[in-house]
Design brief:
- The structure holds two protein chains of two kinds.
- Chain A has a single domain, classed as Immunoglobulins (Immunoglobulin-like).
- Chain A is built from no helices and eleven strands.
- Chain A has strands at residues 3-5, 10-14, 19-21, 24-26, 32-38, 45-49, 60-61, 72-74, 83-90, 98-100, 104-109.
- In chain A, strand 9 and strand 10 form a beta hairpin.
- Chain A is globular.
- In chain B, the strands form two sheets. In chain B, strands 2, 4, 5, 6, 9, 10 and 11 form a seven-stranded mixed sheet that branches. A four-stranded antiparallel sheet of chain B has the order 1-3-8-7, with no helix packed on it.
- The chains are: A mainly beta, B mainly beta.
- The A-B interface holds A 32, 34, 36, 43-46, 49, 86, 90, 95-98, 100-103 and B 31, 33, 41-45, 48, 92, 94, 96, 100-107.
């Protein structure tokens, strides 16, 4: 069964420090992994997807199939990065539905 | 990216009543999804709404409680029927746009007294 695990419910770092939000998944096939972000009082929006292999707002995430992980990283956190981050998985057999982790609330202190 | 709007943005309802949430997409999309986000929890898929066919419900959700309409490729409604306080939640609609990316509406915040 598909499952997405985000072990940290809360994560706090100081501005300028590196940040890593962990995400592990279980899926028998070839998954598509996403990171969604929800800033305060804003809608849920896509941050990045592993297929694109892109860096958005300084964030990167690499799919590690051996460790079944898709951790989100940023070398120097900014205060405006404070938000709720959700890791999500889309399985090929489920016609587009996403399976979400419980989310990690990131707080970046000045 | 698709622009998705939802109405109402929030509501306070009495138990036993029903509320219909509307979701409008600014472009034609094949599939629309309805999620629920209960306080402090992650998003849970309620059902997938396909145009021209009945919605597909996830385990734990039934049509009598959450009837869905999908009259065309840009619009869908979700009704929360016979509400109880446990239905207090944020309800989100989403579509599957190009490049298989899903976009989300702003959500409908529901409080049932």
């Amino acid at each position: 069964a598909q499952r997405v695990t985000q072990p940290e419910k809360l994560l706090s770092v100081f501005k300028g420090a590196p940040v890593e939000l962990k995400c592990n998944y279980s899926y028998s096939g070839s998954p598509e992994l996403f990171w969604y972000v929800q800033y305060s009082r804003q809608r849920l929006q896509l941050l990045l997807r592993h297929i694109s292999r892109e860096s958005i707002k300084g964030f990167t995430a690499d799919l590690n199939k051996g460790e079944t992980s898709f951790h989100l990283k940023k070398p120097f956190a900014q205060e405006e990065d404070s938000a709720m981050y959700y890791c999500a998985l889309k399985g090929g057999s489920t016609l587009g539905r996403l399976y979400f982790g419980r989310g990690t609330q990131l707080t970046v202190w000045p | 990216s698709a622009v998705i709007s939802q109405k109402p943005s929030r509501d306070i309802c009495q138990r036993g009543t029903s509320l219909t949430i509307q979701c409008q997409v600014d472009s034609q999309v094949t599939m629309m999804f309805w999620y629920r986000q209960q306080p402090g929890q992650s998003l849970t898929l309620i059902a997938t709404a396909n145009q021209g066919s009945e919605a597909t419900y996830e385990s734990g959700f039934v049509i009598d409680k959450f009837p869905i309409s999908r009259p065309n490729l840009t619009f869908s409604t979700l009704t929360v029927s016979n509400m109880s306080p446990e239905d207090s939640s944020i309800y989100l609609c989403s579509d599957r746009g190009r490049a298989e990316t899903q976009y989300f509406g702003p959500g409908t915040r529901l409080l049932v007294l």
